[in-house]
Amino acid sequence: MFPTDSDLVYGTSGDGQNFDYLTGTAGILAVAGIGVAVATAYNWISKPNPAKLPFDLDNQTIIEGPDFIHYSHLSKEGGEIKLLRYLYDDTRTLYDVFRRGARVSNNGPCLGWRTDPTKPYQWMSYKESLLRAQNFGSGLVALGLPPGPGTLVGMYSQNCPEWILGEYGLYTYSMAVVPLYDTLGPDSCRFIITQTEISVVICENDEKCKSLLNNPPACLKQLIHIKPISKETADLAKRLNINTISFELVEKFGTERKYNPVPPRPEDMCTICYTSGTTGNPKGVVLTHENVVANASGVLLQLGDEKPNNTDVMISFLPLAHMLERISHVGVYMGGGAIGFYSGNIANFMDDMKALKPTITPAVPRLFNRIFDKVQSGLSSSALKRFLFNAALSSKENERRRGIIRNNTIWDRLVLSKVQDSMGGRIRLIIVGSAPLAGTVLNFMRCALGCVIVESYGLTECAAPTTLTVHGDYTTEHVGTPLACCAIKLVDVPDMNYYAANGRGEICIKGTNVFKGYFKDPEKTREALDDDGWFHTGDIGTFLDNGTLKIIDRKKNIFKLSQGEYIAPEKIESIYVKSQYVAQVFVYGESLKSCTIGVIVPDVENVKRYAEERGIQGTHAVLCNMPEIKQLILNDITELGKKAGLKSFEQVKDIYLHPEAFSVQNGLLTPTLKSKRPELRNFFKPQLEYVYRKLN
Ligand SMILES: *[C@@H]1O[C@H](CO)[C@@H](O)[C@H](O)[C@H]1NC(C)=O
Ligand SMILES: *[C@@H]1O[C@H](CO)[C@@H](O)[C@H](O)[C@H]1NC(C)=O
Ligand SMILES: *[C@@H]1O[C@H](CO)[C@@H](O)[C@H](O)[C@H]1NC(C)=O
Ligand SMILES: *[C@@H]1O[C@H](CO)[C@@H](O)[C@H](O)[C@H]1NC(C)=O
Ligand SMILES: *[C@@H]1O[C@H](CO)[C@@H](O)[C@H](O)[C@H]1NC(C)=O
User: How far apart are CA 308 and CA 540, in angstroms?
Assistant: First the structure.
């Protein structure tokens, strides 16, 4: 298995580098000398401007009707609400998007990569990318695939230029792409190929071809490999009656045959994006060109002047099988920006950032949490560093409160530049999504990086973002307003005592970005999409007074303890995970017990540091077995829980420390990195029973 975002997001896999985020001692002493006094004067001279706002921050949504449906101010057109479908008349499908990029960038650089982490990035222009995509698509037609939205092709690769060339090659002939997530595991891949009856899969390398050839579905006829495969694999395929051909050769066939493009219509399907539920088989979310274009357009509209343009470079490292990453690509192509792919190993990620110097990146909270933790632990060694760093942050925090976010104060030059340089030194826009982000971490990142960071909330069923915080709103712990492409309402969940009339309820979404249903799964579609076209997300939310949405709970995953109290374990987990010693946490309880318990995956570095400082020897696994370490963590999370207002019956009474991360590979996380609760419960059954037994 090659590294994926799960390593970055949850992993403990070595990042090999220990950044010192702070300037050296000499620099620090220099800062201390001129520090505070100069900073004030300098900041005054450089006259910062607060961000330009698209609407009043105290009144961020339009509310209509008896159901209190919330809309974006940006969806109002000539006094009427009209959900956004597209931003530009001539750009209504993904096929159009790529062409627009070529035009507005004036054939600028489009896709960048490097074969090894010591080499500089190489670039392919928009025209070349368009041509290669078309040739590849033409080659598929030559191989016998009929153009049209009914033709599905699998994509089983980590992010690389061929992913995009293949994807846009398919769109050029109205075909649709079905990403096979490398971490879904072989069973899920087989399930998806069988359900979609895919005959052709574009496959990254020998290893992935081999895994598909192990007990292949009967419909699979052809593997197109991006990298060379071994003779052994080719022979195995031949014996199984499956054709193998290189990506390059398909392009060559296409060049020779030159089939005319068959552009898609907005209502045509462009992808089936599988999301694994917490139980059972993955569900295929059917999305059209319009869904994806509407979503990306909604994001761009809300970003206003901050939207990507042809001077931007984005780094691509979150899996393209996630809609968050796909939408980010679409947004960048629409503006004619360039995309550079990370070199494929997350251990080299920071090097890639330095070589690429991206201006935009999508991000997941875990990346921020790691940077935050690293900086904090870097500070623990020196009181002087801590003093300066805190002075720098508090100066920038003061500005943030006044609506000013920038990276050119003297504090940035002297103290914070290392944090900024670790991201390449040019970042101006970050879109965070996929999981809740702690307010303290978000504030810290806004101050330390001095760039625009917006947070989104969304689901694959809505082609990814549904709400987005607006640039200029620097408050935290909410997910912003609905995008101009959709409307949001709350509906009652009586079981959990949430009533829309009291401003709380299940978040329901309707709009041009909302999917058409799950592929071949009418039952699950009926559960999720009601007769009026509202998608029921299962998340519980509340609209704050100023119209921003806050996620407060999850509809499922609650249980009752024996004393009759309801427990929402995810709420507790979101508090415990803020402990520096905790990497991941699973809170568990049974209705026959009177208390909750937990499984904790300790943070390798911070636990190691704690142990070293006290002369405690041992590997991570050994440390996890030590009562002293367990007590340390239990005390820390209990303290955090107390501060966050957890009731005593919500706090775990005991924990089990597990040395290995929950991951997609070991089946404990969904591909969108949410905990698979039933699987976790099964996996840790013996430990959970043991912990409960000991408590009695
Ligand atoms: C919010 O804005 C809407 C439309 O712009 C307006 O009709 C409404 O009165 C405003 N509400 C408040 C409380 O200012
Ligand atoms: C691109 O966007 C940046 C940031 O908003 C802006 O400073 C720059 O002028 C824009 N460039 C063009 C060519 O529009
Ligand atoms: C500072 O912000 C500007 C504008 O957002 C950006 O162009 C520049 O690259 C940033 N510098 C660093 C060091 O992040
Ligand atoms: C649009 O994309 C964002 C970010 O990728 C995602 O969070 C959101 O759910 C999407 N919304 C829809 C309706 O597709
Ligand atoms: C919106 O309202 C919430 C809750 O009252 C508040 O915490 C937040 O600061 C407000 N946002 C802005 C931009 O004023």
Answer: 32
